[in-house]
Design goal:
The mean pLDDT is 86. The protein contains 3 helices and 4 strands; from the N terminus they run αββααββ. The chain has 152 residues and is α+β, with helices and mostly antiparallel strands. Strands 2-1-3-4 form a 4-stranded antiparallel β-sheet. The chain has one domain. It starts with 14 loop residues before the first helix and ends with a strand. Strand 3 and strand 4 form a beta hairpin.
Length: 152
Amino acid sequence: MRDHTPDFKMHELSIENKGLIRQTVQQLLEKLAGDGKLACDSLLEFWVEVPGVQHPRGTFQGGFLMPDSFIYITDYFTCGVQALKPLPAYEESDGGVDRVWDDLFDELFYQIEIFTSTAVSPKGITLELWAGNRLRPEGEWVYAVDRKIELF
């Protein structure tokens, strides 16, 4: 049996890039919740563009582009409220609100580091981030807030 795992070396995001991503994602999620659109199927999705690296994106039969990855927001925050409220398990644990953000960003940073591992330097890497709800199965956004950032 052959091992089809790609041969890559992950590069940890810099503190500056983690801070930029953290600030951007917090703004997106606060806007989503503040608009009353934090539904139980809300997603935080992202695409990663690495300069000079061909990265074909897949499609569903309906033809919409799939993101590189996503996180279910309601794995961390309560849905159906107009403010970001951690799940009860987080509120009852040590660290509360800080812990929910730490867990969400640990997962997000890990996923981004996988997709940026092919780059020699983070310079020029662009992240497109969306938070919102998709119409299923068509996949079009019903509601989304988005932001594009370049790592440095």
